[in-house]
Structure formats: structure tokens, C-alpha cells
């Protein structure tokens, strides 16, 4: 009976510890997930930030969920017209300076123009534009560019991303990596012009979908560089699994 009592106490203590323990971080709950817009709303003109940081976006240019919500890669997505429509995240300037970062999103388009997401300042090296560059998805800091070889404007869903790794003065050649459908993307033969380092400014709010005609789904910004495995997990939808300790 004493043994049974001791075993019961041990079980109660174990359950208490388990209940009090923090759940391991995932790609969905990563504290470095600076902002995430799933675009799953079906009404209104506010794109909620699923990261918990309350960086909600305001739909502009006649854009609304009531008329521009479409079937997404998972759940719903937001359809942009490539003209005046965009989402602006007021009071959020994105990841600035030389800090590492990751942007990733699902896109579906038949036109090879427009921005997926951008922020920064109107000066050389101080913008961070992720979107179409010379007809391919890539990054330009307003002075130089890096873009992938494969075309993505085929009317199918593609997962695209860009990772800036930590460096004292990051540049496109050494410190930026592009991803397509869960794997590192091949860079176009003339897809690199490395003129200005990335020193992103803080003049503009984050803006989504400027000049982009098509659908965007599950757009994420992390203020750290994700690994190859993590980018693959985003593509495969395995975002609820514990993160590796080695980042």
C-alpha cells in the first residue's frame, strides 16, 4: 500500500511537471516569427497577423476579403489585381538594417511582375523587395538583384522564399539564398548583379502585393535565417513539429 501511495505521488508530480512545461517551439510558434498572414478571412478589410505580434494588415486599393478571397494552397488566399490593390501593415517596418531574415509565401500567378512583399527606404541598398525581378522571383535591395532560374508564373501554386544569413554587411552573392518549392533554387545565369549590400531602411511600412496579379497565401517573415530543412518543412506543411535545437 505504501508503494502504491508513493507511485501515485510520483505520477501526480510528473503530471504537474508536464502540465507546467512549455511546449517546444515550432515554425508556427517560433519567437522569431515576426509576422504571418494566412489570408483566411472571408470578410472585412483586415488581414490578421497569426504570429501573435498584432501586425495586422490593411487591405487597400479596393481590395476586400468579401470579393477577393479565393481558394488557397491551404485554406483561403487573397487575390490581387496587379494595379492598385495591396496590403499595408501600418507601424511595422519589417526586418531592418543588416539583420538576418526569412520571407516565404505561396503564390499563384500567370504574370511575371509585381512584388510579393517589400519594405525599407528609397535609397540604394536600403529597400528589401521580394517578388518578380526581370521575370523571375528574387530579391532586389534597390541597386543589384538576385533571381532564380525557374519560372513560376504558370498559374500553379509555388512556394517561394528568400533567406538572408547573418553577416556584418550582407550581400546578395554571399549571404542571400532563394528557395522554390522547398529546395534551394538555381540562380539564373545572369540573375546576379551585386552592387549594394543589404542595409534595409525603415522609411516604409511593410507592403504586400504591390503590382502583383494573382493569389498570395501564408506569407511569413522571420527575423532569423531558416535552414534548408526548415524551408522544406514550410513547403511540406510540417510547421507544427518541434524546431531543431541547432538553428
Provide key terms for this protein.
247 residues, mainly beta, Jelly Rolls, nine-stranded antiparallel sheet, eight-stranded antiparallel sheet, 17 strands
Topology:
Elements lengths: L1 H19 L12 E5 L8 E2 L9 E4 L4 H4 E3 L4 E6 L4 E4 L11 E9 L5 E6 L6 E7 L2 E5 L4 E4 L9 E7 L7 H4 E5 L2 E2 L2 E7 L10 E5 L4 E10 L5 H9 L11
Antiparallel strand pairs: 1-17, 2-3, 3-6, 4-5, 5-17, 6-16, 7-12, 7-17, 8-9, 8-16, 9-10, 10-11, 11-15, 12-13, 13-14
Short note summarizing the structure:
The protein has 247 residues and is mainly beta.
Tell me what you see in this structure:
With 247 residues, this protein is mainly β. The chain has one domain (25-236): Sandwich (Jelly Rolls). It has four helices and 17 strands. The protein has helices spanning 2-20, 65-68, 172-175, 228-236, and strands spanning 33-37, 46-47, 57-60, 69-71, 76-81, 86-89, 101-109, 115-120, 127-133, 136-140, 145-148, 158-164, 176-180, 183-184, 187-193, 204-208, 213-222. The protein has a nine-stranded antiparallel β-sheet, with no helix packed on it. Strands 1, 4, 5, 7, 12, 13, 14 and 17 form an eight-stranded antiparallel β-sheet that branches. A hairpin with a 4-residue loop joins strand 10 and strand 11 (145-148).
Amino acid at each position: 500500500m505504501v508503494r502504491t501511495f508513493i507511485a501515485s505521488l510520483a505520477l501526480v508530480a510528473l503530471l504537474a511537471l508536464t502540465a507546467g512545461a512549455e511546449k517546444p517551439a515550432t515554425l508556427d510558434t517560433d519567437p522569431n516569427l515576426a509576422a504571418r498572414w494566412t489570408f483566411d478571412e472571408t470578410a472585412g478589410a483586415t488581414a490578421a497577423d497569426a504570429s501573435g505580434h498584432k501586425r495586422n494588415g490593411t487591405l487597400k486599393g479596393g481590395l476586400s476579403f468579401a470579393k477577393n478571397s479565393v481558394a488557397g494552397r491551404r485554406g483561403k488566399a487573397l487575390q490581387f489585381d496587379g494595379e492598385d490593390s495591396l496590403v499595408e501593415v501600418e507601424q511595422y517596418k519589417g526586418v531592418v538594417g543588416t539583420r538576418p531574415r526569412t520571407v516565404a509565401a505561396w503564390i499563384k500567378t500567370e504574370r511575371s511582375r509585381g512584388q510579393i512583399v517589400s519594405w525599407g527606404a528609397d535609397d540604394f541598398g536600403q529597400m528589401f523587395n521580394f517578388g518578380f525581378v526581370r521575370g523571375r522571383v528574387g530579391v532586389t535591395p534597390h541597386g543589384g538583384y538576385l533571381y532564380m532560374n525557374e519560372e513560376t508564373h504558370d498559374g500553379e501554386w509555388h512556394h517561394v522564399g528568400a533567406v538572408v544569413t547573418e553577416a556584418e554587411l550582407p550581400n546578395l552573392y554571399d549571404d542571400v539564398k532563394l528557395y522554390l518549392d522547398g529546395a534551394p533554387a538555381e540562380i539564373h545565369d545572369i540573375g546576379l548583379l551585386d552592387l549594394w549590400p543589404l542595409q534595409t531602411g525603415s522609411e516604409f511600412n511593410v507592403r504586400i502585393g504591390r503590382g502583383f496579379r494573382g493569389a498570395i497565401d501564408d506569407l511569413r517573415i522571420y527575423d532569423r535565417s531558416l535552414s534548408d530543412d526548415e524551408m522544406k518543412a514550410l513547403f511540406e506543411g510540417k510547421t507544427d513539429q518541434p524546431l531543431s535545437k541547432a538553428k
